[in-house]
Structure prediction request, 856 residues.
Amino acid sequence: MTLKKLLDMKKESMNHLQQELLPFWLDRCKDEKNGGFITQFDKDGRDTGEDQKSLIAQTRTIYTMASAYRAGYGDERCADYAKFGVDFLLQKMWDSQYGGFFWTVNRKGDVQIDKKIGYGLSFCIYSLSEYTLATGDPTGLDYAEKVFDALQKYAVDTMYGGYFEMFERDWTLCGPSSGGGDRKTLDFHMHLMEALTTLYEASGKEVHRRKLEESIELLLYRIQHPVYRTGIPQFWRDWSVAPQIKFDIVWGWDRFTDDGVKSNAEDNTSYGHNVEFAWLFLHALKVLGKDWRAYEEVILAQFEHCLRDGIDWEYGGVYVEGSHSGGVYDREKEFWQQAEVLIGMLDACLHFDLEKYWPAYENVHRFVHDKMIHHKVGEWWPLTTRRGEPIWTHMSHSWKVNYHTVRAMVQSIQRLDRLIEKVSAHRS
Amino acid sequence: MTLKKLLDMKKESMNHLQQELLPFWLDRCKDEKNGGFITQFDKDGRDTGEDQKSLIAQTRTIYTMASAYRAGYGDERCADYAKFGVDFLLQKMWDSQYGGFFWTVNRKGDVQIDKKIGYGLSFCIYSLSEYTLATGDPTGLDYAEKVFDALQKYAVDTMYGGYFEMFERDWTLCGPSSGGGDRKTLDFHMHLMEALTTLYEASGKEVHRRKLEESIELLLYRIQHPVYRTGIPQFWRDWSVAPQIKFDIVWGWDRFTDDGVKSNAEDNTSYGHNVEFAWLFLHALKVLGKDWRAYEEVILAQFEHCLRDGIDWEYGGVYVEGSHSGGVYDREKEFWQQAEVLIGMLDACLHFDLEKYWPAYENVHRFVHDKMIHHKVGEWWPLTTRRGEPIWTHMSHSWKVNYHTVRAMVQSIQRLDRLIEKVSAHRS
Prediction:
């Protein structure tokens, strides 16, 4: 790996972010008529007209705009867009009767699904805190804290620890099985750690620090496999492993058999989630002012597992899922795992071993820029075959949007800069 | 045991409650000058002038007045006193900056110790909920819910479950060891169950029900000895047993060695706490609409352990503490254990075996009325020798007051009435 290669790759990422990704969103997501963001676009980037605004899509777009602005991109437009999104979120999606945000509304803002979903609420905390950090407007942090308070009151299991995830509008726990009320998930707890990191960064409050530290303990000692340290997707209330099933409320494309159960339901781990955890954890430790070396082993376990089983050295990119102990179950390529592994492998280069992890970064970088990005339009395909031929072709809908893609570019460029600095210093 | 004996004992209790206990308090506790209650009285019932109002004494007196009124005693005076106490509590002890109530103030209401102590806050929930149930004034429940919300936000350990207990004014966790920030206690969790029972009775809210059910699970599966099912006083954060130490913040007369550690620090259980748990648990199950028979074994374990080791068949009354597996460590007689065992043994008679448990009730009843009550003045001695000679002689101070004594009479009379009904029906 040469300095020139680093500089070229940074340039490629900058170009994608500034000439393709951000323009894609700035040109079409603002709903001037109703407020908030339109987030349903077909393969050509045309509005599909689907009449839905999801909590995830609204908050992720707020995060995208606020974080891009904080990182120095998009001029004042990104800040303006973020505020535009916050206004809609507070006016149309906040439940002033019971507290918390609704799960989906239509474009006008009429409530469609009034449930309170922990996963979505963690993105409220994340995006609203980022908005305050980016703009200085205290309204974001104010509502982020309200959501934090509601989760502490309603979602925590004071017997076994951790958080329940699925609630009715009035915060009564949803029913069992596909209702999700009897399960705890990696997904929610990981995104809660991500959210509490930014909340604590914005507020500096001890209670936010304490709950962030506890969320880390939950991930390390409840959610990760005790031997392999890779993430287990679903648990019963008492943290015994639950077979991975499909919930009534979904936000992704996870593939299930017809009965809603995952193949290999009790031995399944996501390379993307594991590496995402590793870099989010490194970031959380930095915000907490803690030394990451105390957790070296568990962080390395994520990178190693992905390097060994998750990278497709033949066709490029990252596989979907596999076993904890070894072996791949699903070799297709989803967009978000590529995005998270870009950031994660750069962190592996920076913290551990540049020569060892660089090939994985370069592999995924090439797969993303050569196969995953639909350059003509500006966003990424959601799902491709192992070889990189698009399977699903929409550029965005309620559960895809821009958080993984824009964040991958913003965060990768920061890390490439640090690598460039490191390599330059070494040469001079 | 004859119907006549039951009627005589009820009469004796009624007489003590109406002619001695309630007049003791109604005649002297109201602080007309400053608001709130005066709760420091010497052996003759004279105000000692100690310039302190403790959270426990204020809330327990509110509970005493409200519960006596709800049970039909003291006419409107008890309701008026309860409101008088609530007014002071809200005006002088509520922390409008950080939420929660202060630990102690002086008689005028200036803050002395501004810490937030879980044990005291559970009595806020208990007494303020009882006040609303007794009087219909929604202010009580409103503040009980605020305290509940604060405990959920600040006190829960989301990693290991359960609640931390000792906090600084701003809710940062107190330091370790005698600071108490690294420990969890039976005392707080049991009184939390007691408080959440009355909170749920008053509010009917699902979240209060859920946390009450979880507090029961914590007591059954974390706090009780896994073999003997008797209560363990102190734990580390992860629920491993901690040696029982004295905290900086105290509210009782527990005896420690000079280094602040309890003799038999890791094998110590309180007969009074165990039987109090049993009857509070039966009451909680009733409020929850659950069948107590599902928990027969664990409830019986408390009564049996006390019957076998706790009752002093020679001099009467209940010992202080002993081993889980058998054997008594401390044979003195404290007032509150007598009070709780009166209620508990009547519940044992009603739910299990009248012939078996009646002698224990009768024993403690006689010891209380013959030795523990200072009839000339109206309240109970706080501590006596095994034989019933007073060791400490004050009638009340910040940590004694009236909750155990008045509640023991109110609750015993209700249970004696049910036994009278039962025995009469059997005879007719």
In short: The two ends of chain A are 16 Å apart (CA to CA). The first helix of chain A runs from residue 3 to 28. The first strand of chain A starts at residue 53 and ends at 54. DSSP finds twelve helices and 13 strands in chain A.
